[in-house]
Structure formats: C-alpha cells, structure tokens
Amino acid sequence: MIEFKGVHYPKSVILHAVFFYLRYAVSYRDLEEIMAERGVKVDHATLNRWVVKFAPLIAVQAQARKRSTATSWRMDETYIKVKGRWTYLYRAVDRDGQTLDFMLSERRYLAAARRFFKRAIAANGVPERVVIDKSGANLAGLQSMNTILKFTGRGRMIEIREVKYLNNILEQDHRFIKRITRPMMGFKAFHSAAATIAGIETAHMIRKGQIAVNGATACQIFAELAG
Hints:
Elements lengths: L10 H13 L4 H10 L6 H22 L6 E11 L2 E10 L4 E7 L4 H15 L4 E4 L3 H17 L6 E4 L5 H14 L8 H18 L10 H8 L2
Parallel strand pairs: 1-4, 4-5
Antiparallel strand pairs: 1-2, 2-3
C-alpha cells in the first residue's frame, strides 16, 4: 500500500488528479483549471509534486499485477525532450501490443540497451524472440544477454530478428505516449520525466486492459493499484 500521510488533500482527490494528467493530453495549468471547476483549489506546482511522487510508485504495482504477456517481443526507442535535449525512451511490447517494460535513458548506447533488456527479462521472463530495428546498440545488448544466458544456464537463447516492419505495432504504440507528452512542452529534470512517463505507461497499460478489476473504470483501477 502506498503511503499518503502528510498530504493536505483526500487520497481520492490526489489519485483522480494524477490519473487525469497521465491519461489525457493536458498541461498542469489546464489541470489546475479543471480541478478548480470541480471545487478543488490546487496549484499546478502541487499537481506536479503529486505526479512525480505517486506515479512511479503506482507503476511498480502495475508491473507486479499486469496480465501475462507473450514471449515474442518488439523493442525500439522513441524520443522525449528533457531540459531542451532529446533523451531516449526504451520500450518493449509483445506481439499483441501489450506493454512489457520501458526505461528512460539520457544516452542511446550499449550499456543502456543491456540495462533495459535485463530489466525487461527480470519483470517478464526470457522471451523466445525479440524483434528490433537495425540499431547496433540494441543488437549488441541482446547478444550480451544471450552470452549471460549461455554461461549461467538460466534458460534458452533469445532469437534476434532485425525486421523493421514487424515493429509497426510498437511504432503505433509510441504514438499514444507522444500524444500525452506533447502538451507538457518538454521536461525540466530527468527524474521528473522518468517518474511522469512511468505513470503515463501505467495509464496506457490500464487502457489496454492489462490490469483488470471486474466492473471497475480505468480511474478506479488506477486507485486500486495505490492500495
């Protein structure tokens, strides 16, 4: 259960505001106005603190409770602007478009790719195959994982496929993330970008039905993850 002690608003108000920001393409000032119209006076800076604090905690719960995914993966990066510079959002979905994992990195290189694959495998198990584009760093990252699997005897080797058109489902999935982040006009700090994106990805997973609670709305599922 996520701790809400010390906040000056009801838990339900905080979770509603955080979910709304992560699910819909609005700025903090837009959300401040929306909340005021509903009788809740809260400034945009407070809304930002709520998102940065609670979104990554709820994302952890979402990863633990998401439905099982397929063993055929699609992996690629998209771009997110932080402090006026482009950073790299590593993302992976399965063959059905279900979110596997995501990771924001300041650089696009072998170490980042390897770190992402380690994280994704830890959360989802070893895949049968992974489809990537022609990125040398991603290829090297997967080859590194295969080396680890071979010498530790932890499981089967991963089939690596470099077929761009097979990643179309992931390219389409990127668009939702970009649509939500566009009104944010870039992030001012890397940690707040990573926290916010974790929340956006969680809201997207709920939208795709990866975390089901019988009869619950998307916002109710989000609140359920907070405990």
